[in-house]
Specification:
elongated
């Protein structure tokens, strides 16, 4: 009868339906010396579990990893890239500001006239670009009014 019970427990064990008490009963049976011949094939499985439960991990775990070092270097590199980008933008903006020469009343009137014409040509160019954009809106409005008569 005990042998039938052990066989039923083994079947339940491999189906994943045993309780902890039943698993302990299997461990006790397979750790004993009087294991049935046809069940000896399962003895290493339960022997391993009883042996593994007594083992302890003794290796040292390193506290500091190299990953932190990599993250720090990536942060520094990203900061340098951002600073270079900001510096380049500031440099390019300062060059645009020095495009025109400051003139006062003591300067040569012809030079003042040339600088004024350059400034007005730039304003005119930008204004014409804006007017072209508005002309597309006017064209859209007139087409919309033809389609959707009010």
């Amino acid at each position: 009868m005990a042998l039938d019970r052990i066989e039923n427990l083994i079947n339940k064990y491999f189906e994943g339906e045993t309780s902890i008490a039943e698993e302990k009963e299997l461990n006790v049976y397979f750790s004993s010396l009087d294991v049935a011949q046809h069940l000896k094939q399962y003895q290493p499985i339960f022997g391993y579990f009883s042996k593994a439960s007594t083992e302890q991990f003794t290796a040292k775990i390193p506290l500091q990893t190299k990953r932190r070092n990599v993250v720090a270097w990536l942060s520094i590199a990203a900061s340098v890239v951002v600073l270079l980008g900001v510096g380049t933008l500031i440099y390019l903006d300062s060059n645009k500001a020095s495009q025109f020469v400051n003139c006062n009343s003591e300067d040569n009137p012809e030079k003042v006239m040339q600088e004024t014409q350059k400034a007005l040509a730039l304003v005119s160019e930008k204004l014409n670009t804006g007017i072209e954009s508005v002309s597309y809106i006017n064209e859209y409005e007139s087409t919309k009014n033809r389609i959707f008569k009010k």
